[in-house]
Amino acid sequence: MDFAWSEEQQQFRKEVIRFAQEELNDNMIERDHNEEFFWEGWKKCAAFGIQGLPVPTEYGGSGADILTTVCGLEALGYGCRDNGLIFSINAHMWSAEIPIMMFGNAEQKDKYLRRLVNGEWVGVHAMTEPMSGSDAYSMLSRAEKKKDCYVINGSKTFITNAQNAEMVIVFANLDPSKGAAGVTGFIVDKGTPGFTISRKLHKMGLRTSPMAELAFNECEVPLTSLLGKEGGGSAIFTASMEWERICILASHLGAMQRMLETSVKYAKERKQFGQAIGNFAPISTKIADMDIRLETSRLALYKAAWLKSQGKHPLREASIAKAYVAEACIQSAMDALQIHGGYGYMTEYQIERELRDAISGKIYSGTTEIQKKIIAGFHGL
Question: What per-residue confidence (pLDDT) applies to 68?
């Protein structure tokens, strides 16, 4: 395994950082306070090529390999302080673009991928329900096949990008007697009768990323809306989660690097008792711990990405990376806040927001506890 970036990847990283720092950080405190999605930033990211990184060139993407994609998203996380925007982009890429790219037919790819890549459309993935979170396949949503359509009934919750979506990949059980084997994916367009946004949700962190509940009430969709095959929903979901667990936390690496550098700078400049606070062991130890976590997180995530680039299915390694990086980012945000003291707790220093945003990493794309359950399963437990 060689994790050294090529010259092209290093140049790409620099370009992403420069773009993000110059274009994506305006009015961040105000947008966080108002739960405001940064549409201009979304469109700029699409024009730059972020949303199209993993998508083949024939559909308007750049066809980048997974390591280059991780490199770009890490750089985006370093240069952009709008973690909510980055989260929305990740959700769009891994739970809307990837399923269509991997399981969609030619007509579906042609209809959706170009619009998702160029930022014209926002895509949504609807699996979680009020009564089924980690136990996703116990869903109550149902689909019934009729002569010329499917009829979907059910509700979904914690749906990222819901308010902005032009299309949603929704999972419903077509044959409950088969359990998980009956779960099926469907593409439902905005404006389809019976499909509504039932309630906007408000979050502790990632406040610039919209979230809502969805309702499907006798929602009729054409037979052509089927994604993949009947009963193939679990394969779609598993493939999506494998990509997501590897890539969605790449931006956390960039944020951890930024928090480390910010904390080092503050520790050198802030004077107490006649000297820089970085000279005191409790502060310098926190700095060292932040660095250790960052490098360990990189190794875990890069390994999972490398294995996938080799054609493997690194479910175990992806879960290890997801569990470790999520926890490490939270602890580093805590350390950054503590190093900054009272100033870290204040909104203007933008450290407290990093902590609020990081906490969600323990929950989305499978909780830390679920990742550890998956890992333990590889040991026969």
Answer: 96
Residue 1: band (very low, low, confident or very high) from pLDDT cuts 50, 70, 90: low
- Answer yes or no: 244 catalytic: yes
- From residue 77, give the alpha-carbon distance in Å to each of 16, 212, 241, 247, 363: 10, 24, 20, 12, 19
276-307 exposure pattern, b = at least 16 Cβ within 10 A, e = fewer:
ebbeeeebeebbeebeebbeebbebbbbbbbb
Cα distance between residue 115 and residue 41, in whole Å: 17
**Looking at 244, 317, 352, 354, which residue is catalytic?**
244
Q: Closest Cα partner for 98 from 236, 273, 209?
A: 236
Kindly state the DSSP code that residue 146 receives in the 8-state scheme. Answer: -
Q: Give tens-digit pLDDT for 272-325.
A: 999 999 999 999 999 999 999 999 999 999 999 999 999 998 999 999 999 999
Per-residue pLDDT reduced to its tens digit, 213-229: 999 999 999 999 999 99
List domains and CATH numbers for the chain.
7-117 (1.10.540.10), 123-230 (2.40.110.10), 249-377 (1.20.140.10)
